[in-house]
Amino acid sequence: MQRNQVLFLVKFFLILVAAYLLIAWTPVNDRVIVPFTHGVAAASGALLNGIGQHVAVDGTVIRSPRFGVNINNGCNGVEAMLILLASIVAFPASPKQRAIGLLLGAIAVQALNAIRIVTLYLLGAYQPRLFDIFHTAVWQIAIILAAIGFFLAWSARVAPTRLANRA
Q: Distance (Å, rounded) from C-alpha 85 to C-alpha 59?
């Protein structure tokens, strides 16, 4: 493994651990993560109402007479965004490239997470036997893979090419 690859991995790990510790700290969780999660629930509830599900949103809970779901940490897309944050910040790129990558990546992760929440609600309401497998495995893996995939696409686009530098 080359030195720059090791340096990337060390930076990635340190940033990821620091970010997880930061969001686990009660003041940050209560003042940033919980309100953010309320917003995730409100947006997902609006999507569900837009497709005729007639749900009510109360804080982080989306419910109807058919089914209810509580969006907690781990279901709000924050963990995938932290992986994206750590990988983009650890990668050698300009501040502008990083900012664009973080903004577009966060939008992509949260758009996919909204689809995740909507489909999980629909599964819980109409196909409850499928809810657990999609909640704990399928969508968890998909969200993380999407964040990694976004990083790989972004890093391939912004990475300095050695051949271009040699010319």
A: 26
Domain count of the fold of the chain: 1
Query: Residue 140 above 50 pLDDT?
Result: yes
Q: For the segment 20-57, what is each residue's pLDDT rounded down to a tens digit?
A: 999 999 999 999 999 999 999 999 999 999 999 999 99
What is the Cα–Cα distance from 19 to 23, expressed in whole angstroms? Answer: 6
Separation between Cα atoms, residue 49 and residue 15, nearest integer Å: 38
Cβ atoms 97, 122 nearer than 8 A: no
Whether 167 is in a domain gets the answer: no
The model carries a pTM of 0.90
Task: Specify the 3-state DSSP secondary structure of 15.
Answer: helix
Q: Is the pLDDT of residue 166 over 70?
A: no
Rounded to whole angstroms, how far apart are CA atoms 49 and 71?
17
- Structural domain span for residue 40: 3-160
Instruction: Say if 165 falls within a structural domain.
Output: no
